[in-house]
Structure formats: structure tokens, C-alpha cells
Amino acid sequence: MHRGKGMKFVGDSRVSAVRKPNVPKDYSEYPGKTEAFWPNFLLKEWFVGAVFLVGFLCLTAAHPAPLERIADPTDTSYIPMPDWYFLFLYELLKYSYSSGPYQVIGLAIPGVAFLALLLAPFIDRGTERRPLKRPLATGFMLLAVCAIFYLTWEAAAHHDWKKAKEQGKIVKQVAIDKNSDGYKIFAKQTCVTCHGGNLQGSEAAPSLVGTGLSADEIAKIARKGKGNMPPNQFKGSDQDLKKLADFIAGLKSE
């Protein structure tokens, strides 16, 4: 179209001259479809996800994850316990043919199962989706689910939760002078095996911090024993025993 000298107007038929509002189609004529995926359905999903995320963050801030005491490599009596989603593997390694010399079998079983799950879409190329029409896949899946539930139940039922709570309890610490003569004598004795490097105690022995006992009482226990502690555990001179007893009696919890 020409108007005036050298002026041209070019039109494109692909661009609509009338702007249509962003209104979803009426899906009432289509059975099984009630609304458009975008923006109706997707916005609802985002909104529900945002509400769940905010609620979960608030719950996490109000109730933080429980922590145990700082790991002590000198505490040989500590029994580690995995989280609940690994309890079935923990229980699996307790059986005769999946632990000890057969530990490779115990480690290979979940590995083979996971690998089979990854390769399942490539191995089973059938188009049938009904579980009853796929007996092998359905049977293996039910077997795996039942095994996981059973092993998890066995691990939880036979675990001593009371002792686990005690061994992981956070105890008050005290500044210990590890260069003192008393601590050096303590470290040389077998006491450190049960009572820990920081004298915080373990499942097998109580804490030596803030016992409330006098030096003479501590020396007597070291010689004659008490409770689970057998007699004559201290191997040393009376002078070393006195230094050790004075050192332990002077430990006060904060």
C-alpha cells in the first residue's frame, strides 16, 4: 500500500489484529478433562507445593533434628544405629550368610536389586500395564517390599532403644587439662577404654566428671572395684593413684 512519496505500509497476516484475552478453553465438551494444564492446574500445584514447603520449614525451625554427643573415637562400646530408612540393610548384615566371611553377599543383595530396578525398563519392554498381566515384575516388587518391611520391623523390635538413648545423650563437658599428671596417668591405664578420652563415660561405664566423690572414695573404687568394674583395675603405685584420684575428684561439670 502506497501513501505519499516513498512511504510503504507492510502488513503480516500471521499477527492477529484483535488481541484475545488469556482465557482457558471450555473443557466441558471433553470428557475426562476439566481444566487447562496452564495456567489453571499448574498454578494450583505450585500453590500447594509452596504451602507445604513453608509449613515444613516452620516445623524444622520449631523442632530441630535431635543431635547426639560429639563422637569419641576412644569409646569402643558405642553402637552406631542408622536412620530408619537404612534399618533393613542394618538388619540384613546380622544374618549368618550376609555377614562375617559372607559379608560380600550381604552387600551384593541390595546392589543387585538396585541394578535390576534401573535395568527394568530396558529388560521388560512389554506394553501391558496391569499388575496381574506381569507376574514376574509384580512378584519381585512385592517380595522386595515385604523384605524391606520385615527387616525394618526386626531391626526396630530387637534394638535396645533405652541404651541407645543413654549412649547418645549429650553430657555436660568440662575443660580437662590433658597435660596434667593426673590425666597422663589416666590415659596410661585401661580406664580410658570404658570411660572415654574426656572421662564422659559410655554404655559400659559412668562419667567421671562431677561424681561428687572424694579422692579417697575414688581411690578405693579404683582398687576394689564397684558395680561392673572389677577390682584391681588400676595398675600403678599408690602415689600415682593419689594423683589420679585428686584429678578426678577435682573435675566439676559446668
UniProtKB/TrEMBL annotation:
It is a multi-pass membrane protein. Keywords: Electron transport, Heme, Iron, Membrane, Metal-binding, Transmembrane, Transmembrane helix, Transport. PROSITE patterns: CYTB_CTER, CYTC. GO terms for molecular function: electron transfer activity; heme binding; iron ion binding; oxidoreductase activity. It is found in: Membrane. Residues 27-153 form the Cytochrome b/b6 C-terminal region profile domain. InterPro entries: Cyt_b/b6_C (IPR005798), Cyt_b/b6_C_sf (IPR036150), Cyt_c-like_dom (IPR009056), Cyt_c-like_dom_sf (IPR036909), Cytb/b6-like_sf (IPR027387), Cytochrome_c550/c551-like (IPR051811), MenaQ_cyt_c_Rdtase_cyt_b/c-su (IPR012049). Belongs to the cytochrome b family. This is Menaquinol:cytochrome c reductase cytochrome c subunit. The gene is qcrC.
